[in-house]
Structures are given as structure tokens and as C-alpha cells.
Amino acid sequence: MPDEEYDFNRFQDAMSISNVGPNYEFTPSSTDIPRPGPTDVLVRLTHTGICGTDIGLALGYLGNHDESGILGHEGIGKIELLGSALTPSPTLRKGLRVGVGWIRDTCRSCDHCMSGQGEIYCRTKTFSGVHVPGTLQQYIIVPVNYLLVLSEDVEPEIQAPIMCAGVTAYKAIKTAAAVPRSWMLISGAGGGVGSLAVQYAVAMGYRVIGADVAEKHAWGMEQGCEAYIDVDVEEDVAGFVKRVTDGKMVAAALVCIGNARAYQAALECVGSFGTLVCVGIPGPGPQNAMAVLPLQLIQEGIKITGSLVGSRGDIVEAMEFVRRGEVKPKVQVITLNEVGYYAGQVGKIEAKLVVRLP
Ligand SMILES: [Zn+2]
Ligand SMILES: [Zn+2]
């Protein structure tokens, strides 16, 4: 359907953030349906996950949000309308299921885009909810060059958490490049990214030691941990890991929580030639820094690296684990109007929140 025939004279439901800071509020809003440019696609969203980053933006410690106030970056939907310059094809047509994640577009020409590291490090990439309106709305614009078509063999509500939390976990494990069957420490194992990291690590053949608060112990073990450290009780985390691993320590440690103490403890658990992968983002300031003795890295051949979400290719790979039933995200489905009520529970409840859009 050419876009001049499409009825844009309607409003859509959205949820906008206001009063950024400790007393942030999500408020229902009614906005215009966005008009796609000639090479854009209009997507009708059906579901979106809520991620810890959305709450970080609402609290104001992760920088500014988009002026629309519409956050969200774990969107699943269907193609509604193609821009005027686009021609329908089997891989580009109305009704196809697509995903809308944290990265919404890249330039495809800067030195980072051109390098092997690729699009996620693009110098001018746009982020959902930061530079453009996010997925807490019914309709959204996606540039055709950044469209991500997804399998329709899986329930959309369990695909949603993979668009950010799941791919972040999966990519971090890939980044660690540890030998299968080796030990992996996952710090923050009870959180949104961490609990999925446990499932991915097990599915990818690793033996997992989870670390998080005692009240998440049973949940962590349920996700597939072989051992679990109650960080609010255990005083000697490295000693615990040493006992469990027969003195070898872990081949990789993923820190999925933004906590400097967790980083420090994880570094002490990494064995020879192992890798510490930084995922969770501590706040700014020296109190959030980690102390590193260069000699430890030199003598033990330890690497410290960071991992940031994943490319569209990583999302496709991560989704395949869900399609095959090897990773089963536990979700709690809520309505758009319930977002404000549940927002404060992100990272606390033992499930990923997924909004079913009206
Ligand atoms: Zn670029
Ligand atoms: Zn996220």
C-alpha cells in the first residue's frame, strides 16, 4: 500500500517518562503515528521487554533520553507499511515479524563500522529511547538497512528479552572465548542479563558458578548454576571459587551487575589465561573504579575486556537458542498501563517484564 493511502490521521498509545530522577514517572500518552521516510519501514509493535537500562535512563544516571520521553528497546512487531521508495519482496513485506533493539541505526561507513568489530561501535549510531523514540509505543520507524527479520516459530513475548538482555549475555560469553566445559563465574546471576547469561553459558557448554544475593539463590540454581555464591553472606568469594574449581579458578568471569565490589571480587576469581568480561555499568566516580595490579595480568596472562549488546548477527544467533528451547526466558507479561507500577521491580522480580502492546 503506498503511504498516501495509509491512514495516519489516528493516534497511538505510548508510555512516556517524566520527572527523571529518583521519583521518575511513566505516564500514558497519545501521540501521532510516525510517518516513515522513503527508505524506512513502519512497524506495528506487539511486545516490548523492559530492561535495566530503561530504568537507568529514568533514574537519570545513564545520560539523557529522547525528547519524546518514550523509552524501550526490546521490541517485537510486524511490518505495517513500507516507505515510498521500497518494493515489497519475500524478505520485505507487510506482516513479517521483526525485532527492534537498542541500536537503531548505524552509518555503515565510519572506521568502526568498516572494521572487524563492526556496527555496534559505530561512531554515529542511534540508540532506542536516547536518540529516537523507543519501543514503549504501538508504532515505530526502522530504517530498512537496519531491519531485523525474526523467526515466527517462537512466541514473541519470549523473543523480546533477547533483543537486549539476551544478546548482551550471549555476546559477552562469546567475547570470553573460553574452552567449553571450563568454569565461568557469572556475577549478578539473579538479574535480567545475568540470569539469561547463566542459561546461555550452560547451553554453550560451560560450568557456571553464579553470584548474587542469597534471596536469589534458588532462582540462580534453577537457571542452571552448578554452584552459587550468596554475596551478602560469603566473605571469601575467591576462596569459594577455589574450592569449587579444585584450585583452577574460572576461565572467564562475566560481571553483569554495575557494582565495583562485584568487579573486584570477580577479578580475584579469574584463573591463568582467563578473561574478565565487563558488562554491568557502575556509576561514575572513583568509588566505582576497580583496582588492577598489572603484575597479576602479566604473570597470569589474564585479560580484561568489555562487551556491549551485540550486532544483528549476534541477535539472530541468540534467538536460535530460544527457538530450539535451549534457552527459556521466564517472562511476566504486563499491559502498557501497568509499566509505571512494575518499573520499580525490574531486576528484583525473578522474570523479565514484557509489555503486551494494545
Ligand atoms: Zn559507523
Ligand atoms: Zn537493554
UniProtKB/TrEMBL annotation:
Which residue ranges traverse the bilayer? none
Note the SMART domains from the entry. PKS_ER
Pfam families from the entry? Answer: ADH_N (PF08240), ADH_zinc_N (PF00107)
Give a GO cellular-component term: cytoplasm
- Alphabetical list of Gene3D superfamilies matching this protein: Medium-chain alcohol dehydrogenases, catalytic domain, NAD(P)-binding Rossmann-like Domain
Q: Kindly state which keywords UniProt assigns to this record, in alphabetical order.
A: Metal-binding, NAD, Oxidoreductase, Zinc
The catalytic activity of this protein is classed by the Enzyme Commission as 1.1.1.1
Name the cofactor(s) required for activity, per the record.
Zn(2+)
Which GO-annotated molecular functions does the record name?
alcohol dehydrogenase (NAD+) activity; metal ion binding
Query: Where is each Enoyl reductase (ER) domain found?
Result: 21-333
Highest rank taxon of the organism: Eukaryota
Q: Does the keyword Transmembrane helix apply?
A: no
Tell me yes or no: is DNA-binding among this UniProt entry's keywords. Answer: no
What family does this belong to?
Answer: Belongs to the zinc-containing alcohol dehydrogenase family.
Q: What is this protein called?
A: alcohol dehydrogenase
Q: Which organism is it from?
A: Coniochaeta pulveracea
From the broadest rank down, the organism's phylogenetic lineage runs: Eukaryota, Fungi, Dikarya, Ascomycota, Pezizomycotina
